[in-house]
Design goal:
Layout (H helix, E strand, L loop, with lengths): L4 E4 L6 E2 L5 E6 L5 E3 L5 E11 L5 E8 L5 E4 H6 L3 E5 L2 E5 L5 E5 L4 H12 L5 H10 L17 H7 L19 E7 L12 E7 L5 E6 L5 H15 L6 E4 L8 H10 L2 E4 L9 H20 L7 H15 L1 E2 L4 E2 H6 L14 E5 L12 E9 L6 E5 L4 E5 L2 E4 L80 H14 L4 H4 L3 H17 L24
Parallel strand pairs: 1-7, 2-6, 11-14, 14-15
Antiparallel strand pairs: 3-5, 4-5, 5-6, 8-9, 9-10, 11-12, 12-13, 16-17, 18-19, 18-22, 19-20, 20-21
């Protein structure tokens, strides 16, 4: 939504969270906050002018931290002498001479859908997303179209790379399971919530299907590879020929040597410090880490959930990425049926888990607040971080709020949680050709409304964009805690009127009500008509809210 301005009749002033729009910007002398619809707040960093077109320049536009939308206030336009006309399918802004200075169009549903699926599918590129939707290879993915030059800030923060070079990888096999590429990533900058520091990535050369395993120590690599190889040998009637890795100590050891000799496998090694020779898994490493970092950045999810993000990225990639020469996804090539994405949800979004305690009070809340962290590996369930209990549960009794990230951060973030911060220490290129030491179970289960299809995965809008970073000379505000937020909400609630009878006793609220009614009359927002027969008119009420 960075390049879209929304006409808002309920907004008290023009505002944006993107610094680039301002032709002039002056800092504010006093602390001022804007209260959003979810009771979150954004600090007003400055006030300036914004040129929307050659004929329309907005004055007194507030630069608000954490605001994802660009809002044009109808009331402020009217105060500045403009006229706003709403028609079916359009909105026109006219000056005092009734000359058209700007027109706005409704925000298309298909445009909103492209952003929704972009976020659900781990910030997949818009071009690939549109191409996949037109090919009909994935169940549950509707036909999508994208406008030109769409920009997603979390994608830039999570996927910015150096200029690319000519790829050297090619398909070297003729059937699934013939050759497995493998590599480790890590150590991470922070331990995961389950105490993991490394990731093992394994890729099938023919299918490009991938597996990821989180590890506390690198010496766990052999156990995961052994179990995977034995499982794949049971799945296929064709023999596995070889595995390929770098020269790291986790691969070049007696355990691997004896295992490969017993099964008749060739263990191929890339030359030291020559990642292109293990290009298939190196590229997969970069893809998964970029997806994970982008998903973490979008909802400002702490870096300690990196393992959940990497698992989710792998889950999505297997269902979306095409084997170009076969015209099918890796999932379909392996399982013989098209993947479904109807159950996918945006990683890091708020969700609500049904309580299943034995004895609930009649007036007790029926759900727990949580954060969506991906999909269970061995059941048709979602993985959710329960905020109150501070633990991960797997459940299918869950509802999602994917609309937008909260304006008030859910977590108190540290320096390692800044946008674009690397997840792993050796993340530049995500190359690991040696053995690095490190120190430091997947999550606990719990409860289990969504229907799943036969795929075996859990069931089944605009993109948030974060404002540009403040200048280094600006002194940052101290971190805002949830306690401070609740204290502020309680304070504001103490002088907000509960009903009309209380408001009529306050001259300030009476004046505000008269002003609102005058705006209705001035803008001609209603027509008095006879109601149709057998129809009951909808009532109205006053809502008293400090904005």
């Amino acid at each position: 939504m960075e390049d879209v301005w929304i006409m808002d009749s309920g907004c008290s002033r023009h505002m944006t969270g993107h610094r680039k729009w301002f032709s002039s910007l002056n800092p504010v002398s006093t602390k001022e906050y804007i209260t959003f619809g979810d009771n979150g707040q954004g600090k007003v960093m400055g006030v300036g002018s914004v040129s929307l077109s050659a004929k329309l320049s907005l004055r007194e536009v507030a630069f608000v931290r954490n605001l994802r939308f660009n809002l044009v206030s109808v009331s402020q336009l009217l105060d500045e002498g403009f006229e706003v006309r709403f028609k079916k399918g359009a909105c026109c802004i006219l000056d005092a001479e009734e000359t058209l200075v700007c027109s706005l169009l409704p925000f298309g549903q298909s445009f909103a859908d492209i952003w929704k699926w972009h976020r659900r599918l781990g910030h997949l590129s818009f071009d690939l997303l549109v191409r996949l939707s037109s090919m009909g290879l994935i169940r549950g993915l509707p036909k999508l179209r994208a406008e030109k030059d769409l920009v997603c800030h979390p994608c830039h923060h999570g996927k910015m790379v150096a200029a690319s070079h000519i790829p050297v990888s090619q398909v070297m096999t003729f059937y699934p399971g013939e050759l497995l590429h493998m590599d480790t990533i890590g150590p991470a900058r922070v331990a995961s919530v389950s105490g993991k520091w490394y990731v093992l990535v394994v890729v099938d050369d023919f299918l490009r299907f991938s597996w990821v395993f989180s590890m506390e120590f690198k010496d766990e690599t052999f156990g995961f590879v052994r179990d995977l190889v034995l499982r794949l040998r049971n799945e296929s009637h064709k023999a596995m020929r070889a595995i390929r890795s770098d020269n790291g100590g986790e691969f070049r050891n007696s355990c691997f040597e004896n295992f490969c000799r017993d099964l008749g496998l060739e263990h191929q090694f890339s030359s030291p410090y020559t990642p292109p020779q293990n290009d298939v898994v190196e590229r997969k490493n970069r893809t998964l880490v970029e997806m994970a970092r982008t998903m973490l950045d979008e909802h400002r999810t702490p870096r300690r959930f990196w393992a959940e993000a990497v698992n989710t990225a792998c889950y999505i990639a297997n269902r979306l990425f095409l084997r170009a020469f076969l015209g099918k996804t890796s999932y379909e090539l392996r399982f013989g049926r098209q993947p479904s994405v109807k159950h996918l949800r945006a990683f890091g979004c708020r969700c609500f888990v049904l309580k299943k305690a034995g004895h609930l009070d009649k007036f007790e809340s029926r759900c727990l607040d949580g954060i969506f962290l991906g999909y269970a590996s061995n059941s048709r369930a979602f993985r959710v971080w329960i905020l109150e209990a501070k633990q991960v549960v797997e459940t299918c009794e869950v509802s999602f709020d994917e609309t937008m990230p909260c304006t008030t951060p859910i977590f108190e973030l540290s320096g390692d949680d800044e946008e674009g911060t690397p997840i792993f220490e050796d993340e530049e290129g995500v190359v690991n050709d040696g053995d690095a030491g490190a120190t430091a179970p997947a999550a606990a289960p719990a409860p289990s409304r969504y229907e799943f299809d036969d795929e075996g995965g859990p069931p089944p809008l605009l993109p948030p964009h974060f404002p540009d970073k403040a200048s280094s000379s600006e002194r940052p505000d101290p971190p805002r805690t949830r306690g401070a937020f609740f204290f502020h909400s309680a304070y504001v609630a103490s002088f907000e009127q509960r009903d009309v009878s209380h408001a009529l006793s306050d001259p300030n609220w009476v004046n505000a009500m008269h002003e609102e009614l005058e705006n209705f009359e001035r803008n001609h927002v209603w027509d008095l008509v006879e109601p149709p027969p057998n129809c009951r008119p909808i009532g109205t009420k006053w809502v008293f809210k400090n904005k």
